[in-house]
Design goal:
The structure is a homotetramer of 222-residue chains. Chain A has 222 residues and is mainly alpha-helical. Chain A has one domain. Chain A is built from ten helices and two strands. The longest helix of chain A is centred in the middle third of the chain and has 31 residues. Chain A is globular. Chain A starts with 10 loop residues before the first strand and ends with a helix. Chains in contact: A-B, A-D, B-C, C-D. At the A-D interface, helix 1, helix 4, helix 5 and helix 6 of A face helix 1, helix 2 and helix 3 of D.
Chain lengths: 222, 222, 222, 222
């Protein structure tokens, strides 16, 4: 008797999805642990609460970012019929960078509160590095899917995942650029890119193929 | 070949529900991290444990509140057939405010222990602000559902979600009022409203439509 | 048009189970946060690690306890066909006490390390109190199920949940007794009961009906 | 009326899997809490970030290890049709050791930063001990499955789980050996084994039966 070839090699995606949901749910929730009751003299609570604004900004931006990762994850997996081992590892790589995200976020938030230019440049560069690795993990994921049609649902368009790679590549390039500009020239430029990129990924979470003419044109040109 | 219009745009609600269950399960559990073994001289453990009563009160009230959010979430999603992107974002907005909740709760709990009137007024106003935003997120959610019949299960009554908006609106108004009264006149009034509102939402979690004659009358008047 | 009576009132148990799994998974995992690298002079790591033995004991016993709660929860819900609101609240009451459990556990663990008799008596009484409330929550849960045959799977024996109440009642009585004896006479007696009771619930998690002749006799006597 | 024998004794594996997914998702995420913004004088952020390298190494290696545990867990459960109580306990034993893992990892990470030979030997021995217990838990799990064919999916090969025991046994032996060598002779040898073993388990997560000729030869020899 021999096992069917697929057993344990390929599997439906339910456990991958539930494990990923669990990890992302925890990351998005742990962020609140960084919000603390301000310590200070009696009568100065209002002052203390307002002083923590960079912590609130970090909380909101991290929350948005993890939310966007989850939306993109959901959009991708709604197109995947079965997972193999390499896709499992690519997914674990995405989760690894998503779990890491709150750490550079607090580094930037702390640096903003302490008004030291050198530290702010370092913090921006550090955040950009993690952002670039996060985009790289999505690039690897989309690239693998664009080469393995057999893992996808039948009705997925052939050009969908190849075009998605562009979204991830945009992230790698812009994070590296923001890190360099932020470190060498002006930290603020880096911050602006950090805020805009998740918005871009949020708006395009249904797939670049659907929101820009690029994908359509290339698709029809086949 | 072109993808069916729905793929990636609308989807069944299973991942939205499991992600939300994960987030709410974590929030409700993290609250216990605020309960700590009292530090104090040997022989005074009983005293130390009793002194922490505002922490216990904060724990119980936050637990109840998150439980009520979960019950309302479950009641709403049992009526939703499929989710689109806007509903996904409305849900993420609800989760955002629910995750935030333990923070103003500890601010109030701390202020109660320190007997400073100014701080207590600020804490009450802060809690009221978060409560009002939480109610706003439900208002947006219910409003969207009342305009998108096509996302709902067939057997849901046409008036169900329109009437649910009233429940959320009551919250917005009462939290704002409690914040103003608590800040300007008497903090205790705010506290009483904070305890009563979750009870109201707990009792009406099956839908205002079912517990009051308002919904029925308006429904039959169509 | 009117909604079917069941919608939003009764529902299948999938979300209740996944939410409960999430909560219990988190409680059982949070416990490890209490294990810390011992701070101490270089060269004394072994000593530091060994000195923390009450923390390890607390970790193991809390883990076992939450594991037993999960096994009993799973055994009960495998017999439940649908949940109504009251059952939902009974379940939230069980989760509330389970989430609370690590707190008295660390209080006892700390008291054991500090060798103060008064504190140890208080800690034992406090743990017993939480244990008794935990058993009470199961008593309420089993009692409700024994009165609502319509929520159960068809093949569940009529005597199953009525007999399960005995298990919960044993817990209420023994925890109260252990608390009184531990507080008034000898703390060690309390500790022994705290270790034995989860073992009892672990061994009988398939239902008292199956492990003792009591249930069988009463069932055949109908 | 009597209940069918299986009710509450054997059950499908869905809740065991979702509970395990939850626990592993939390462990893998909690690790990031050990990464903290370095405290230090303004202008020295870069230095502070670089100084924490053992914490990053601990984070990456723990993440990889828990990921490998999850992959092996998923591979095993894709072959299990139903769980009984003993398998439930074996699974809880695996989760227990997985949850524990971050603790010895930080002990080793701290010891590496403090350059004390005695502490490093103790830390290596402690990690090896936990690693050996982790492998033991898998050995018990695989052994139980190799004796209970009736719990497995029909298409699973008879030799699959018997051969899997070898993988677990390799872990027990190598962790004990690494602990002894690391404690008595050279800590570095222990570290190398700690890095190589998860890689071995990662590469063989589809089952030793498939990656080595041992399993095939023994299987064809029947």
């Amino acid at each position: 008797m021999s096992e069917p070839a697929e057993l344990g090699i390929r599997s439906d995606t339910s456990r991958v999805e539930s494990f990923s949901d669990g990890v992302l749910a925890i990351v998005i929730t742990l962020l609140v642990l960084d919000l603390r009751v301000p310590e200070g003299e009696p009568g100065h609570l209002l002052h203390g609460l307002l002083d923590q604004w960079p912590a609130y900004a970090a909380y909101v931006s991290s929350y948005l970012y993890v939310a966007v990762v989850w939306l993109n994850h959901k959009a991708a997996f709604s197109r995947i019929r079965q997972a193999d081992r390499a896709l499992g590892w690519a997914n674990l790589f995405i989760l690894f960078t998503a779990v890491l995200l709150p750490f550079p976020t607090s580094v930037v938030s702390r640096a903003l509160q302490e008004h030291n230019q050198t530290d702010q440049r370092v913090a921006i560069a550090f955040y950009a590095l993690v952002g670039a690795v996060l985009s790289l993990s999505w690039l690897a994921f989309y690239h693998y899917l664009s080469r393995h049609r057999e893992l996808l649902e039948e009705e997925v368009h052939d050009r969908f995942f190849p075009v998605e790679r562009i979204r991830a590549l945009v992230g790698v390039i812009l994070y590296v650029a923001a890190g360099l500009v932020g470190y060498l020239l002006e930290p603020l430029v880096g911050l602006v890119v950090f805020v805009l990129l998740p918005l871009f990924y949020g708006f395009t979470s249904i797939g670049l193929y659907y929101v820009t003419p690029i994908g359509r044109r290339r698709a029809s040109g086949r």
